[in-house]
């Protein structure tokens, strides 16, 4: 019985294994290979060694611009989103009536936010004649040229993703609700102030989900495409020209597959390094309660 | 003796004061919480409310003010937007979206269930490594595999068809769902399956007749998530679907803001409302599956 079930299990996961090889592993290595070639769609690939990479890192001004903008975007968006999600989860985490209503209301943007329809909505909201500007002027402020200004253009995309804090919040909320209430009672008896309890109990117990959300949101933010593509078209002055947009245009507009693959690998390397740093540092700040495994 | 009694009274007195203070604090805290939640909620939902309101306005009215209530409600946006500037109506694009979503969702649910069952209930050589790749692909940015995938599908002659969008799902391509189902499977006791096996059922029969009925809520979660994600997917169709007659709504909407229609805000906003409607409906009809899905996929493990 154990003999045949050893192979049995393998048959069940076989579809996954095939998919992994054909649609992930081989393309993964393929793009690494492509990144060392000059590959235009109509011609074949010719091996050129590190030339793409040296071009990217030394000559390509657009890349430098795009890279800086991407880092700025991720650095602003991810911490803001996590902090906001945690804050609202904290506010929701008590014996509130209507907690389900608020949780749902806050989650709706996460459901819709990836849709192109919301990107379109954003584009119209922040347009010169959009309702944000109309609101500003009606309360006496001056209208802002959101998409004409490098600083504010990127901010509109950040705002769109902040608006979708719901999925991170739901995860935080579930974690908050699983914290043993007696810990807080004990802390209160010992005379701890609420803020002290937050830093001594809540935050340490939340570190695993903070870590999880951080990684997921970071990987997602580095791949932001819809926002710049639909809302700002990468402009103005390439101030929202995030790397995924650059890769897309290089690969599917200019059909320079080799160069695009090299940029993709640089982006991948950045994500990997940051993920590894997060994993490595997690030993020092992520707290796993030993007896909470189910 | 009397000394300790007064001490006792004092303690009770202090405890009562403490409790009263605590109650006051709780009331204040509750008020603050409700205020924050309501204000944030209104700010969050206003764009959507405005979207719906504006879709019933005329173009001149949209530019006239930031309020959401249309003064002279009109369905012009819907009627004209539905016609589009292409030879096709939006109905065609919705039908195309459905043609992408239905096979993809069915393939995902079946393949991910089978694979998760294999991981959850069997030991086989290389299982640990293979399972590590499930987590690995969860974190692997798609951007790095996209170009060779495109070349592969081109060589297969699948460009401008829905095959590149369907086929990877038939091979449990979305590792997230395998992971999610696995979390659910781990919480289902094995007793019933083992009993079935003892009675002579094959492992596949045990899967179909014992595991699947218990796993239905999780499978619904998977189907719902895949529905939403595919509904929202833009880059996939953008890369693989090039003829307008095969466009899903996401591409059609992008097309309409790029063409002359872009000055006709009410048409585009009306079609945006229709684009969001299926996801919203599905979400409200089946909320609990979503919350369960996120918690299972996210927190445990």
TrEMBL record, chain A:
Chain ranges passing through the membrane: 12-34, 71-92, 104-124, 154-176, 197-216, 259-280
UniProt keyword annotation of Cell membrane present: yes
Subcellular location: Cell membrane
Every ABC transmembrane type-1 domain range: 67-278
Keyword list, A-Z: Cell membrane, Membrane, Transmembrane, Transmembrane helix, Transport
Gene3D superfamilies cross-referenced by the UniProt entry: MetI-like
Principal location listed in the UniProt entry: membrane
Membrane topology: Multi-pass membrane protein
Top-level taxon: Bacteria
Record family assignment: Belongs to the binding-protein-dependent transport system permease family.
Protein name: Oligogalacturonide transport system permease protein
Organism: Neorhizobium huautlense
Phylogenetic lineage: Bacteria, Pseudomonadati, Pseudomonadota, Alphaproteobacteria, Hyphomicrobiales
TrEMBL record, chain B:
Gene3D superfamilies registered for this protein in UniProt: MetI-like
Domain ABC transmembrane type-1: 94-286
Residue intervals passing through the bilayer: 31-53, 93-117, 129-153, 165-185, 206-229, 268-285
Membrane topology reported for the UniProt record: Multi-pass membrane protein
Subcellular location: Cell membrane
Record's keyword terms, sorted: Cell membrane, Membrane, Transmembrane, Transmembrane helix, Transport
InterPro entries xrefs: MetI-like, MetI-like_sf
Pfam name, any one: BPD_transp_1
CDD domains for the chain: TM_PBP2 (cd06261)
Similarity annotation: Belongs to the binding-protein-dependent transport system permease family.
Descriptive protein name: Oligogalacturonide transport system permease protein
Organism encoding this protein: Neorhizobium huautlense
